[in-house]
Amino acid sequence: MEKPQVIFLDAVGTLFGVKGSVGAIYSQIAADFGVEVAAESLEQSFLAIFPTSPPLAFAKVEPAQIPELEYRWWRSLTGAVFNNLGYLERFPDFEAFFGELYRHFATAEPWVLYEDVIPALRLWQIQGIELGIISNFDSRIYQVLAELGLEYFFRSITISSQTGAAKPDPEIFQIALQKHDCSPAQAWHIGDSKKEDYQGAKSLGIEAFLIKRSTGQERKSLSVGIGDREGIHTLPANT
Length: 239
Known about the structure:
Layout: E1 6-9, E2 16-18, H1 22-32, H2 39-49, H3 66-83, H4 94-104, E3 111-113, H5 117-126, E4 130-135, H6 141-147, E5 156-159, H7 160-163, H8 170-179, E6 187-191, H9 194-202, E7 207-210, H10 229-232
Helix pairs in contact: 1-2, 2-3, 3-4
């Protein structure tokens, strides 16, 4: 397999994941604001509502507007998660709760960095491969990457909220490629979503690899070298 010019990676579920569960974090912080709700119920509500939300992407807006639009997007989703369970009105001050929750997810505290990530990124850098992130995330990613010790590995960070397009839309991949002056045939993309990452990248002609963190493959799946056939095969590209 020929060495790529650039390897793009997804963020959440590929480089780092939620520590515990979203529901558990929501439940813990809600309790701090006097609202007791089971973590399992919140997790189920989040998993039901998140896929129905509009893309976290804001086209044709001024850059200065994006942070507020990101905040409102997550405020709407979080409100729906609690409202779905009948708990929204139980908050004496939902705005204060949400503000704390939003700030919390901008830190390293709710995230866990997968142990194979740093060795893989270092290996690719040694091999002279450029690295980039393509993620359906918001601008908090910059602080999260810094706190997790990842920011210096990546030449580019392309996120949906700032590009106005979310994976699997080809536009977000095209924007990322332009940052590296790279053709699709010279790039790889690694992510955990078959639709957003694997199919999205493939639709543009980018070599794609699907990583399944939940199946226990995280120990070796990113720690591969170009030409390391055994390692490459730990990425189930045809899944």
